[in-house]
Amino acid sequence: MSINMNIGKNDGFAISASKLTRNFGPLTAVSALDLTVEKKTIYGFLGPNGSGKTTVIRLLTGLLKPSSGQVSVLGCHLPQEANKLRLQIGYMTQKFSLYDDLTVKENLQFISRIYGLTPNEQKARLSELLSIYQLNSLSKQLAGSMSGGQKQRLALAAAVLHKPKLLFLDEPTSAVDPQNRREFWEQLFDLCDQGTTILVSSHYMDEAERCHRLAILEDGIKKADDSPQALITNLPAKVVEIEANDLRRIKDNLTKLPQVISAAQLGTHLRVLVKQEVEQPIHFLQQQSYLTKNDKFTLVRASLEDVFVTCTGKGAIAS
Amino acid sequence: MNASLLRVKAIVIKELLQLSRDKMTFGMVIMIPLVQLLLFAFAINTNVRNIPVGVVDHSQTSLSRILQQTVSATGIITFTHSYHSVKAAQAAIDSNEVRAVLIIPSDVSQRLVRHPSVGFGLPPSSKQETSRPIAQWLVDGSDTIIASSIKSLRNMPLTELLDKPANRNTATFEVTLLYNPEQRSVVNIVPGLVAVILTMTMIMFTSAAIVREQEHGNMEMLITTPLASIELMIGKIIPYIFIGAIQVSIILGLGYWLFNVPFNGDLAQLTLATFLFICASLVLGLVISTIAKSQLQSMQMTVFILLPSILLSGFMFPYEGMPQAAQYIAEALPATHFIRLIRGVVLRDVALVEMSFDMLWLIGFTCLGLLVAALRFKRTLD
After folding, report:
1. What is the C-alpha separation between B103 and B127, in angstroms, rounded?
2. Cα nearest neighbour of B379 on chain A
3. Mean pLDDT for the stretch of residues B332-346
4. Residue A115 sits at the chain B interface (C-beta within 8 Å)
5. Alpha helices of A62-165 — where are they, by DSSP H?
6. Can you tell me the distance from the alpha carbon of B75 to that of B82, in angstroms, rounded to the nearest whole number?
7. Do both A188 and A115 map to the same domain?
8. ipTM of the complex as predicted
9. Which of B58-91 are b and which e, b meaning 16 or more Cβ less than 10 Å from the residue's Cβ?
10. How near does any CA of chain B get to the CA of A24, in Å?
11. Which domains are assigned to chain B?
12. Cis amide bond preceding A26, omega within 30
């Protein structure tokens, strides 16, 4: 207990949690999660739907009370100091949660009044935000009539209006196209440069790869936690791409082998993850009766998706 | 504190903006009191006129026809059908063709001349011939208002019938009717209607208020902000206090100009009583909205409160006539207390201090309700 009370005293961490657990009745949504997030970094939660990403964010924002475990966010112990924390964090929900029947400007004015900005501060901050997030031409449009990308920019502008030290983004790009997603991430990097710590959940690999550090969640359990590069480098598996006929049948046979973690068809290729202990993966694969020497085998570099597959689902191996 | 006021103001401005965009709700604010006032004030009438009745005339004399005209001249009934037999007449009542039937016996002339009301002095009541009524009413007694209207004909004077001075009885009591000497129902209904319409609209608007934020997902954003639940509650009800005031002005204004409902009371007193009732109703709506999980549920609960507010509050039926259990329920409804207050102020010019129980009850209800709503509203998603 005494050790845990010291959590959060370290100035380097924006978030530190230990053995954080949350049950919903018999279901355990988050199980004994240990987490430290350094200040001024972008920290990602990667996980399939229902893996507990949103629950973790709600626990860290004080919206849910933990069933057990300690958590300290920006030096505030939750849930006791949740009210104190509220002024310092920004939260962009998965679903658009501003008012559809108010205009862009009215929505931002509402938020700035809630955070107690004076009329002068409000005016300055609003014009700043409208230009950063390219909402100037939309300022008189009703939020409900805007596109997914525009709504997302508005939601981000509202979430950072009071200049929070810590920003939570729950699957922020699920409703926007790749172009908008790219611009969105540039804005996140700008915020990070200005000193904001960002915690973002996603199920997009390309998005996860941009984070400074990444936690892979499955069924409320943290399966991996490192920088994306370290995760890829340390992957306990080798990746082989096979070009052959009847990939479907080969795949079904390969996945039965204990040495094969997973096999997935990518167009004309079959991407096979073979366990690290197999020293010569190509040779090992060629020995299988349903593959011939004529088929093309290539050893390739692992990707974040391979890490994800290795950590989660049936392919999960104890690391 | 200043920051707190600013947050309340933020909610008020937001609610007003949303309301101004919601044309349907905005229209309802005006149309509900307007249409309901016209409907109820014209429709609800406890002085029943022109009840359709039939006649079975066994006598078929000029006297029997004059008798029919005399009864008809009271305006209470209108003879619409004539039947040959009592049996046919009863069938007509069963089929709702007429509400009552006047049966005139064949010896109506003999009965009439011996009847005490025509002025031959009071006969000994033992003498059967002279104590007989001259004709009989057969009434559909299921509707008590219709039944009592026809019962009022039981002792009607028959002076015109025989062109003789009536043997009038001196009344036992002298009755003086204050405040509504002409006995117009509308005088009692219009102030009561203020209570019913405010109950309906005020509870309806606010009961949906919190639920709507939840349904649209706005609540998840609001609870991550420094906004306190009591600030949200107060911010939500302030705009509707003004809407309630508009509705009261429409009802009482139209009641005065269109239906000549007297306005005897003091405007400040009326404003105070109405303000208290609006607050109580809005707070009741807020409590509902913290219980309901969808806007549909909040509507159902509004109706659950609305019906007893119409039927038990004294709006339709006198409070004094209800059994004790119903009176306890009525006491719990804000509408009951407000109907007493507004009838007192508008019709009788009572000072509110003389009705302080009802005032204090509304104040207590508002405070308690606000507390319950703020406590029930959770700032976490647990």
Report:
1. 23
2. A63
3. 92
4. yes
5. 82-86, 104-114, 119-132, 148-160
6. 18
7. yes
8. 0.81
9. bbeeebbeebbeebbeeebbebeeebeeeeebee
10. 9
11. 2-44+188-376 (no CATH), 51-162 (3.40.190)
12. no
